[in-house]
Every structure is written in C-alpha cells, then in structure tokens.
C-alpha cells in the first residue's frame, strides 16, 4: 500500500482528487473520503478508485555505453500512481535511490552530476495516450504512449515515450523505454570523464502496480 507521504507527493502531480484522498486521516479512507476526492477530480464513484493503481517499489534503470566503459544504475524505490479512468500517470523517484556496482561511481553521480542533495527527486506527471478502457485491458502487453513533463536536476521538459500496459495476476504492469540526454537537463559531465559517458543514455521503466484501496 502507498504511504501517506507518497500519496501526498503524487497528489500534487495528479491533482486535487488524489490530494484529498491522501490527506484523509488514517482509518478514514472510506466512501465519504472517496466521494470528496472524486468530486474534486470530477470523476464518478466508485470507478475512479477501482481503477487507480499504485506502487512504492517501481523500478527505473539507465544504461550508458561507450568504447571506454559501460555504466548501469537501478532505482527500486520509485513511487507511482496510474489512474486508468483519467489516464493520468505520475511517479516520484528519490535520486539517492540510484545505485551502481562501484561505490566511487555512485559517489560521483550523486555529488558531481545529479547533485542529489540539491535536487533530491525526479518526477514525471503525464497522460496515457489512446488509453484502453479498463474492461479491455488484456493479460498481454498492449502498446501505449505516455506524454507529460519530466523534471530532473531541476529542469522540466515535455516528453512523449512508447510503453506497454498489461494486467497480470490482478496487477497493472507499465513499461517504458526511451533515450535521455543528460545535457538536456543541465547535467554537466567533467571533461576528464566526458568520453566515458554516453551523450544519450537508455532509460527503462517498470512499474508493477496494485489496486489502491
């Protein structure tokens, strides 16, 4: 289940409906609370909450390949919410959740490149395009596109990326793969190691989400 703090963060990204839901006292996330949240987002009850999925443990990884070396990192602490009624998608990733095989590389990433103390989170808020109706979700990957705003290193940019949706064991699986250029987000690579890091890195997203109560 999503934590209250996670719901508040994602509520800011998704809008007033989830914010109202997140701000309800523990033990009072009932039909009255849901009705308030639903009214705020102009969505009927109970469909909006029956088709809202979330996770605290989504995964984002990136891979950089150059003739000098390959660099890979993974973050398994990504909070996400997917609303299959409105098509809205949001995630929040703590930058210090990105880990590397080599400690020194991880240290350089957080201190010199991502500046994780100054910019502690990466966020995305967007919409699934050509959203399949909830009843038509299949137990096989269905192609979708996700469009929205990615904020990284304090820089916001509009992106549109391909992905898939799938229902598996009552869970919603969302995947996406896209290329990201560090320079687009004002991430400076020191000249000493510039040839070690690709100008465009491959990003993979995997969110395994369960129905929110």
Structure description:
Helix 1 (4-14) runs antiparallel to helix 2 and helix 2 packs antiparallel against helix 3. The protein is elongated and about 50 Å long. Helix content is 21%, strand content 42%. With 213 residues, the protein is α+β, with helices and mostly antiparallel strands. The chain starts with a helix and ends with a strand. A hairpin with a 2-residue loop joins strand 5 (142-152) and strand 6. Strands 1-2-3-4-5-6-7-8 form an eight-stranded antiparallel barrel.
Helix amount: 10-25%
User: What is the residue-mean pLDDT, rounded to a whole number?
Assistant: 81
Ends: how far apart? 8 Å
SS summary, helix count: 5
Q: Which regions have little confidence, pLDDT < 50, spanning 5+ residues? A: 19-49
Strand content: 35-45%
- Topology, number of strands: 8
What is the assembly state of the chains in this entry? single chain
Radius of gyration: 18 Å
The chain-level structural class is: alpha+beta
Reported for the largest beta sheet, the result is: 8 strands, antiparallel, barrel
Strand order of the largest sheet: 1-2-3-4-5-6-7-8
What is the succession of H and E elements?
HHHHEEEHEEEEE
């Amino acid at each position: 289940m999503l934590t209250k703090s996670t719901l508040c963060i994602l509520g800011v990204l998704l809008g007033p409906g989830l914010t109202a839901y997140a701000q309800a006292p523990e033990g009072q996330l009932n039909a009255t609370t849901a009705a308030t949240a639903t009214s705020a987002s102009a969505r009927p009850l109970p469909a909006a909450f029956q088709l809202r999925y979330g996770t605290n443990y989504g995964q984002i990884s990136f891979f950089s390949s150059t003739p000098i070396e390959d660099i890979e990192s993974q973050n398994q602490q990504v909070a996400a919410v997917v609303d299959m009624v409105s098509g809205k998608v949001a995630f929040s990733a703590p930058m210090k959740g990105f880990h590397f095989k080599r400690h020194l590389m991880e240290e350089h990433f957080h201190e010199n490149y991502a500046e994780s103390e100054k910019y502690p989170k990466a966020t995305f808020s967007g919409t699934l395009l050509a959203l399949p109706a909830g009843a038509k979700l299949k137990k096989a990957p269905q192609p979708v596109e996700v469009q929205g705003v990615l904020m990284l290193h304090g820089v916001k940019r509009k992106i549109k990326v391909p992905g898939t949706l799938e229902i598996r064991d009552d869970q919603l699986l969302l995947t996406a793969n896209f290329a990201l250029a560090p320079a687009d987000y004002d991430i400076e690579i020191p000249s000493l190691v510039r040839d070690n890091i690709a100008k465009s890195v491959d990003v993979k997203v995997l969110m395994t989400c369960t129905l929110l109560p």
